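User: My notes are a mess, but here's the protein and zinc ion's SMILES. Can you give me a structure?
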Amino acid sequence: MALATRLYLLKIFVMEEIHEFRIFKKDYPLLAQPNNAKFNGFVYVFKISRNDPVFQQIGLLHMEMMKKYNEPFFGFWAVRRNYTKKELADAKLFRFKIKTAFEPAGEECGTEYDEKVACEICGANRKQIGPLKLKKGSIPKKDIARTIAGEVVVSENFATVFKQHPLKGALFAPVIFVKGTSGYYQLIASSPELELTKHTIAGGNPFDLPKESTEALEFVVSGGYKVRIEKMVLKCPKGHTIGPRLISEAYVFDSPAINDNDFFVSRQKTGAKQGLLRPEPIYFCSPTFRKMVEDEKLSGFDFEITHVE
Ligand SMILES: [Zn+2]
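Assistant: No problem, the inputs look usable. Here's the predicted complex:
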């Protein structure tokens, strides 16, 4: 069989992983030409698989530039996974990404936290005291969204259909505006936390796998203002955080809780403490939850398959 035909058949039967890189104009000439980049007026955009020779080239140039100048070769990286119908039908668990983030965060609107119970190294696991308070008019018109600090908010419609189905593993606490209730709810997991396995890879991007921490930086910007960036712990030695963001799909250990619930969070978190930001868990759901989101056309979700080991 011709290679092209075999690759085509392969594509039908397995997930396709497409990496998007955006390359600065000044750096683009370093890549072999011609290639399939699209110039959008600001940057060159590649949407490629790991097998594409350009993927390796971008990786080598990135590592070289980081070593020489401590500067990335690309300004943006994201991955999109397209699954086959069979893979989706066979999946036992899904990870969902919350597509929209907004400000101001709860802390800026009077939500109280006990920071004393948080990890002194990475800042994970502070305790929220009392209701989530947010600013009126700041919540996006989606069925799910998160603040930049990782507080998850759902619409009244979401809370209603979740209870009607009925699904398990979530609590809905009213979100408070300065004047009274908001009609939105904070989504809180009531199921046992799921444990990620070592196959779950986190980092800055596919070529930049986790360092333990970044150093504090201080520099002067125009106007003579001093900017200070705090030291960030990217991988907590106590195991609370695994890196800035997920690079791979998520892998979790099997647990009886998976069959008994429809919504879950991971015990290990991604991200780092920085200003208002805190490490955030990964969100998971059952196939029934995903079907509800699709049937009811709930907005703000993006799903990926999670592997149960
Ligand atoms: Zn920690």
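The chain has a mean pLDDT of 92.
User: Great, I'll file this with my notes.
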